[in-house]
Structure formats: structure tokens, C-alpha cells
Amino acid sequence: MRRTVFNEDHEAFRETIRAFIAAEVVPVYDKWFAAGVVPREFYGKLGELGVFGINVDEEYDGAGIDSHKYEAVIYEETARAGVSFGGSGVHTLLGLPYIKMLATDEQKKRWLPKFTTGEEMWALAMTEPGTGSDVAGMKTSAKLSEDGTHYVLNGAKTFITGGVHADRVIVCARTSAPREDDRRFGISLFAVDTKSAGYSVGRKLDKLGLRTSDTAELAFVDVKVPAEDLLGEENKGFGYLGTNLASERWGIAFGAYAQAAAAVRFAKEYVQDRTVFGKTVASFQNTKFELAACQAEVDAAQAVADRALEALDQGELTAAEAASAKLFCTEVAHRVIDRCLQLHGGYGFMNEYPIARLYADNRVNRIYGGTSEVMKSIIAKSMGL
């Protein structure tokens, strides 16, 4: 299909990323998969390549580009190769927007140069054991010291992507009790140095998919957080969190579309090589019909993902539109990847084949960033229902 979302600069970047993946990722990816984590030094290579600095202002050593289209290219190219850049997506998609939106000039000068090089990796710690999507129900607390120089952080977080390698984590914590008429009041955001005393990384969680993305439990026991590491204003954290949800959900939607497109590519290559009953699997009418149906769904998902990308870059992507894109693209990816795995037969169940890894990786798309059921609620509300 003809696309208008990318220009020559994006395509040149695509060539760079594709070559980088072929040289630096594909040869060692099986080792990363077995280890369940991307080596920390790999993020330095992404920094050298300029991946982390694309959306960072030039005064902080970035490229100063205000667009998500380069991220979109990375989604497509990693999916195409059947690989992952680990938890680095959280660094740029979740960490950077909060720094750009909330950090003071002094904070930006301290944080962004190291952010850009990958010397200091960031993560976001929102979810807690027992709260899930109920962010307002969090128990982690941050109490300001009597002299006002620091906060004392106590609590725990779970499902924190990038949590193992993170050097600084945006931690959501209660600085005040919720109000009777507003249980969302009282949450604040802190950029916590992971080397702080009392900060600890618990288990690296054993996930069904996304094996190379480090996801961890975090614990805070009397962690002293300097007052100058508060992000934004005290007690207004819940509102800040909501402003980034549209871009996060776009990212999941676009990533899911890219996975679906990759699944069709993997299946097409497999059925053209695989023979059964003296004929290639691709020669059977059922195979052709299945792949044709999958391609049609991928085409539709691409159009939805691209439209959401354009709206996001123009600052016009609404919560309902982001929810609709996420719901549609993740459901399409679920159906397409399952059907493409089926075309692989028994080999589709083997982790040595990228379709098997893709199948497992894709499942979380309908859960994180807001479940499909939450997306439906948002869409229904926008319809006046």
C-alpha cells in the first residue's frame, strides 16, 4: 500500500536501523533471549547511534526533532527482524515526555545529556502489587522532611519495564492523603536515583513473552529523595500521568501493527519453503486464502496506526482515538499472529522460530497500557454511552 506518513529522512533512518540490527542484534539475539535480558552496554550503542536523542532538544545534545515517526520506524524494523531492543522503549516513550513536560531547566541540564547517550537509563514506576490499573489506589508514600531538603520514600512497585537496568526511575508516590471528593489528589512524581540507599531491585519477573525486556519488582525503604528531584508540582501527579497515555497507547498500537506485518512476512517465507505431500505449503488454496485475509487485516491496521501517528505528531490525538487505535491494532495482531503461527504447523510452537516468540510477545499488548476492556470503556464514554 502507498504510505504518506514517512519521508526520505525516515527511510534513510530505516536503512541505518536495519543495518544496525543486522550487525549488532541478530547475531547475538539468541543469547539475549536465553539470558532474559539485553546487556546494559547495548544501550550505550543505541545512544551512540542517536536513537535516544532524536526527541531531545539540541541544547541538551539531542537532534531536536519533535516527532514520533522515528520511533515508528524502530517498531517496524525490530518486528521485521524478530528482535527487541529490550526495555529501551520505556526510556524514550515513557521517560522522556515527563522530563520534557515537567523538568525545570536545572533538572534538564542534569539529566538530559546522560539520557541522550544512554549513560543514564530511565524507567517509570507506577503499578503496585494489588492495585493494577487503579493508580489512585497506590500505597507508596513520600514524606517531606522537617527541614524540607528531601522526601522519605517507602513502598513497592511491580511490573516495572526497564527496572533492572534503570539508573533513574520516575516513581509515583503519595505525598498527601486523597480527598473525599477526589481520590486522585495527593500523588507526586519523583526522579529517583537507583543508587540511593534503601532502593532495591527485587525479582526480575519471569514473563510469558518480551523475554529480553527486563521487568522487575522495586522496593523502597526510607529512600531519601532530594527535594530538587520532585518532577512537577506536589500532589498533581495523577493529572501528569494522564497526559502521556495517548502517546503510550499509540506506541502499543503501532508496535502491534508492526508485529502483525512481521508475522505475515514470516509465514509467507515459511510456506514458500516448506513442502508437504510433494508440494509447497504456499501452493494450497487454504494457505493463500489465510495469508490474503491476514494481509487485508494488516493493511487496515497500518492505516489506523498511521492515522494515529499523524494525529499524535500534530498534537491532536485524543484519548478516545488512542484507545480506538490500541484496541483495533492489538486485536488485529492477536488474530493475524495466531493464524500465521498455525501455518507454521509444529515448528510454529518452537522458540527457535520468530513466529513463536512473536506470539508470546504480542499477548501483553491487550493488557498493558490499559486493557482492551478499559479501551472499550473509554471509547464508549466518548460516544456518550
TrEMBL record:
Essential cofactor(s): FAD
Boundaries of every Acyl-CoA dehydrogenase/oxidase N-terminal domain copy: 7-119
Pfam families assigned to the protein according to its UniProt record, in alphabetical order: Acyl-CoA_dh_1, Acyl-CoA_dh_M, Acyl-CoA_dh_N
Residue stretches spanning the membrane: none
rRNA processing found in the keyword field: no
InterPro entries per UniProt: Acyl-CoA_DH_CS, Acyl-CoA_Oxase/DH_mid-dom, Acyl-CoA_Oxase/DH_mid-dom_sf, AcylCo_DH-like_C, AcylCo_DH/oxidase_C, AcylCoA_DH/ox_N, AcylCoA_DH/ox_N_sf, AcylCoA_DH/oxidase_NM_dom_sf
Keywords: FAD, Flavoprotein, Oxidoreductase
Domain Acyl-CoA oxidase/dehydrogenase middle positions: 123-223
SUPFAM superfamilies reported for this sequence: Acyl-CoA dehydrogenase C-terminal domain-like (SSF47203), Acyl-CoA dehydrogenase NM domain-like (SSF56645)
Start and end residues of each Acyl-CoA dehydrogenase/oxidase C-terminal domain: 235-383
Family: Belongs to the acyl-CoA dehydrogenase family.
Protein name according to UniProt: Acyl-CoA dehydrogenase family protein
Native species: Streptomyces brevispora
